[in-house]
Design a protein that fits this description.
The structure holds two protein chains of two kinds. Chain A is an all-alpha fold. Chain A has a domain of about 160 residues: Orthogonal Bundle (MetI-like fold). Chain A has eight helices and no strands. Classes of the chains: A mainly alpha, B mainly alpha. Chains A and B meet through α3, α7 and α8 of A and α2, α3, α8, α9 and α10 of B.
Amino acid sequence: MIDLHGFGNQLLSGTLVTLELGLVGMGAAVLLGLIFAPMKMAPLWPLRWIATTYTTTIRGIPELLVILLVYFGASRFVNGMADLVGYDGRIEISPFMSGAIALGFAYGAYATEIFRGALRAIPKGQIEAAQAIGMGRWITFRRIVLPQTWRIALPALGNLFLTLLKDTALVSVIGVEDLTREAAIATGYTKEPFTFYFAAAVMYLLLTVFCVIAIHYLEKIAGRGYARGDT
Amino acid sequence: MNWDVMWDSLPELAEGALLTIELVAISGVLGLALAVPLALARVARPLWLRAGPFAYIFVFRGTPLLIQIFLVYYGASQFETVRESFLWPILREAYWCAIIAFTLNTAAYTAEILRGAIQAVPEGEVEAAKAIGMGRWMRLRRVVLPRAFRIALPAYSNEVILMLKGSALASTITLLDLTGVARTLIAKTYMPIELFLAAGLFYLLITGIILQGFRLVEKRVHGVGE
């Protein structure tokens, strides 16, 4: 076993931060996806235009750049807004929040495309049937469309989450004490970069395996009542 | 918004963009060259041949690119033997470390794409090639690989875009690529939003050019045959 010089606990707490970042970022991405996917299919062209601009620009810009932009830009933006409404104090946005927002923003573009595909896959007849029995638009969306969207989108969302989880390493650049940052700190003390980055790599691999199992389980739950291969 | 800062930074950002393109191009070509044998070994029948590439692909796709870069750039220096070997002049340079890390990383992703494509080549075509007496090697060269490349093309264009975005990580090991230049200029001017937006526009431009290039290749490839 490799000698971690007592930095094992830090690496573990970093792993927890990494997982938290992944989950919060993914939550934000899913939320953005659920907002922008219907917009992309809206009959009004300005809505479509906004959604398309969002997905095409974000997907063409490095995640690292988005993270740096949000980190440096968000506090300026929020404080500018606060000034406008007459709030005098300074609002601090933590590196963790900027990192999670940036990841959510970057991956929301991919989530939008996934949800768009899933929404398309729902038979029109079902929506018409729901409306025929008197369901409103919102109830139709919540009771008929959304539950099925999950089932269809889940495998792709799972893959997206695994990619996002690895990209959380980028937030170490803005000082969030995630797994990568903790490894860097330990390296600074011990002068053993290989040992700690290797340990971090192993942790990321374990996290990935753990998440693959969790996603598989979620897919099973979402697919209840469906024959395999039906999705 | 300070437009002057954006305008004045364009020449320096363009230089950074050149390094970004250079990194992506070199590691892209090397990665592709490495990916072909990897993918072929990955679909081979004997376990001992399959196991190596499987583990390689699993590890490189399961860990962050940033960690891989740090392992090459910082990690290698931990060992005396590496520092004294003939490899040190290469591993000392951030430039070559970035190339090595990007190459190894993209090779894993590309190999996985190629594996899927090789397995998607219609069985009938391979059988037909066997039937007219083509040997194993010739089948590979004339039927399986050309077909697989064609099938893999759309997915590979995605991988190149991801590689372009990943190349921004070169800035974390002191290289002055597009992101690196933007970060240095920000340290001088403290105009983060303007400069990152300008760099973002450069990335979008490069993405657009790459996508357009692949569209042309796809058109050509599908124009013949099918």
